[in-house]
């Protein structure tokens, strides 16, 4: 790429009155990183010491030829090409556009598309992983072009990748584009706390508050918490209680392991559940059960959810709160990268 003819170097001392062609960045480790001068700023006599102090002895003046784009314009066109529903774009800043969530939800980001964009030289698209829960205004992706002057051809390639994606991606009719945010829906959640030691008052329930906080974090609510001893019939009754009340999600805690008193997985099955998986390849959270009774998701939560900050429950819950059905493949793919402790 030969951009030399479009860029002219001028010593800062001779640049008074000239227009900056790009943002200029200052970094003071531990204190500040950001734009010191904005693109378009007219250099003044008093700017010269500041420019020299960030190591700029020269500035560029720029004369773009047809077929070339300024870094800011290229980044903006890239971002507009793939930003879909519930995504907002920031102003260009140092050749970068941030994509932000416009709502609370989970990000949906097509990995194949991201890889294709990044295989085009001098373009950068860095994103969160798909299905990550995000809050409104949280950054979900950033685009950047590496050179100050970008060949328009590269941007056209990205724009046409996005067009192809829209033509071929049948399942994404909700999204419009490969990077988007699926909003949470407010679910009514029934919570069944099993364990004769809790039911009988021998120990105080520590599970309920944890589950309540997690559920509320994604915009849903626990409509009621019911206690049950380690008795299969009683657990089945409590599941039916919440089915009758049209709970959108039923969560059961405790009794998920291999002891004779661990009745929860069997009771979930006896209540008529279709098991997606019992045994989840993630540590912690391996004893989690994912099941459905009709359309209603039912989850058995093992003891670790009570004390480990990030388990398989934290991966699956935001997706369920966004209205997604969990299938077997969603579970099997958790193992790779699924070691988080335990
Ligand atoms: N031989 C094996 N042992 C264990 C396995 C295994 O595969 N083979 N898995 C381990 C894993 S992983 C976990 S996680 C736990 C599973 O625990 P459970 O869900 O069966 O939990 P419980 O046995 O019901 O309780 C464990 C512990 O936590 C206390 N507890 C339970 N509920 C509450 C509550 N609501 N509030 C406060 N405390 C609670 C309970 O009293 C026990 O002390 O199993 C491993 N073992
Ligand atoms: O389920 Mo345990 O559920 O891996 O700590």
Automatic annotation (TrEMBL):
Keyword hit for Calcium: no
Any GO MF annotation of the entry: metal ion binding
GO CC list: cytosol
GO BP field: Mo-molybdopterin cofactor biosynthetic process
EC class: transferase
Its EC number(s): 2.10.1.1
Residue ranges occupied by any MoaB/Mog domain in the UniProt entry: 190-322
Annotated InterPro entries: MoaB/Mog-like_dom_sf, MoaB/Mog_dom, MoeA-like
Swiss-Prot/TrEMBL keywords: Magnesium, Metal-binding, Molybdenum, Molybdenum cofactor biosynthesis, Transferase
Reactions this protein catalyses: adenylyl-molybdopterin + molybdate = Mo-molybdopterin + AMP + H(+)
Cofactor requirement: Mg(2+)
PANTHER family for this protein: MOLYBDOPTERIN BIOSYNTHESIS PROTEIN, MOLYBDOPTERIN MOLYBDENUMTRANSFERASE
Family stated for the protein in its record: Belongs to the MoeA family.
Protein name: Molybdopterin molybdenumtransferase
Organism: Paenibacillus contaminans
